[in-house]
Amino acid sequence: MKVSKLIMTGAAAPLIMASHAFAADGDQAQNTAENQPTAVQEIIVTAQPVFRNRTDDVVPTLSYDLEYFQRFEPLTVGDALRRVPSVTFLSDVIESDGARLRGLDPGYTQILINGDRVPGAGVDRSFFVDRIPAELIERVEVVRAPSARRSGDAVAGAINIVLRDAYTLEGGYLRFGGLRFDDGRVVPTFGAVWGGEVGPGGRLLLGMNVQGRRNPKSKTSWRFDEPGGTLDNIELQSDIRDGMDYSFNAAYEQPLFGGALELSGAYVLTSRDEVENSYEYQDGVLTSPNLLTYNNQVEDISSTNWSTRARWEREMFGGESRIRLTHARYNDDISSVEAESEYLRDATPFPDEDRYTVDQELTDLDDRETGLRLEHERDLAPGLSMEFGVDLTWKERETLVQEADRIRFNVPNGGPRPAVPPLTGHAPVPGGDNTIEEDRVEPYVVLAGESGRLTWEAGVRLDQSEITITDRTAGTVTETDEDIILPSASLRFQLNETDRLIVSAGRTLRRPSFNHLSPALLEEEYGDDDFIGNPNLQAETAWGVDVGVERRLGRRGVMGLNVFYRSVEDLIEDVDTGAVGSGGAGTSVFSVDNVGDGSVWGVEFDLSTPLTVLDMENTGVFLNLSWLDSEITDFAGERRFNGQSDYVLSAGFTHDIPTWNMAFGATYYQQGDAFDRVATEEVYTSYGDNLDLFVERRFGRNFVLRLTGSNLLNASKDETFHKFDSIADQLARDYDEFELESEEAGPVWQLVARYAF
Question: What are the TonB-dependent receptor plug domain coordinates in residue numbering (predicted)?
Fold first, then answer.
């Protein structure tokens, strides 16, 4: 990496030399007082519809302020994202964790907080957006195309979650209320935010939020020996997820050394229990004599997610220089205990028990990421500017997954169950004790210009990475490195007073999943077949283009149409190593390698406008409709990218009644079917429709009372599983099991009051 160090030093040189120019250029310092905070009453007690922002970014970007979502009182960023174009989820019912921009796997979508990468729980490097309470955000940006100014890990695009800063609010507000779930339980929600001047020239914002989280749902599974075959059993399951979120954020801005200093941080703690109770009946007969098993699984989850950031900027050297230091950390601490009672192992039916089994798995995940960004921007000529800099990233991800010794004993028919001994002998599972270190150096340069109706930018980014994988269960240390050039270009052309054309093209990448890099051998991971990771995997890369037109509708409305295409190379797919598996003859050892190519394309339409043309200025509507498609060839033939819905629709309206100080509205969300094919399993997934509504009453300029209802159509998630013992059986369609599964959750009602001061 000697070249990387040279590039890094060259990029930092202007900032180092500029440190001697503070006194000479002090009169050019940025005046942070030019930023004007918004009176809190204008945000909390909204008296008119709110629409998508029409941004002036050259790179196609859709921007939505918190007020766009707030009336529906979303609990998390994930809930809010169901009201923006092209975002789907394959989560459980009424959950929104891994955002799938344009329907692609979450690993293809880059999640940013304040423009910075953040670590997450997903082995595919994804960040669960339901870990960020919606109350923390200022706005959400959907960035459809790449730019050399940002990391290239965004094949599908990027979602930038912008948290409130010190200039967001003038004043404060309280938020308090409760949520009632379908099982009758009520949980609290409370929040407080304040922003104002602190000290000479400084501004401070403080916010905190506490909210109950609960997801009670029921699930039913029908299992057959093959499609159209004999019904083997039915399983009835209750699944309740119960917890609390605690969050805190702060931001401070202050003139310093002739420039502007910004300090900010956010902390989120999620404490959650997941309890599943399952009853399995033979031959589909739901009576006690036909009870096969009773399974109880309890997961105790504690997740912490925090990030800090320091940013300083100053005018110097005829331009503007910026330094940004970030540190983010994600930790998961999970205890999962599964206990199963088996019946009907002989002719004696329930309540006699034949076998009792207890398993425990402990997971400790610690992912840390530190970043340093140095950049300088200056004008080269009238209408022409240049920005250059470097991003440095140091990432360390430690994983420890342990299993206890299995407790299993037979229970005498008619006799008492013996006492269950303590769980002991915890030891790492194969591949479950590892450290992944990743160092990245990413220098970039961007030229930008404006001439008449045309605005453009073009740049290039060099992504250099070194990865060290220490797998303690396999006793191996592997080092790899990779350099990828990522060019990009965008232009915006003003066609007339209301219409503009936006065209973007560039190259992006997706890095390998962590679980694919571990060289540990996992026996019977794919049915009867084994799996071993490949630490030498290279990143997938994609060339893509976006072409869109956007029209301004009146003073506040906007309508857009965008067409996109991605050509993905070096796809990571399952491969047969040719080695015989641990099961002996007829079994194999599979791995993954860069062996495939694929294409993704679609059309995206969005509309957000008041109905002024119908003389309904106080009525706002929005409509987002995306048609999505793709093609890939895997070990079994052609398919779409796994989990990609063929369409996604969200639509809604808000209507204000000024004379009554009231408002109401509704949102409808629907996504198309999806298909997944991996080794030994294929899944078809479909979702039911989702309907949310709100009604609010304002009292003066400082108080609003709002009732919201979500999941009012009792949305269901239906899955069809085709399961096989091996890939050979999968290709021959020799079934191990065919399963139909359906889960459903009921409505959630929320009553919230907001008071501004």
Answer: 66-157
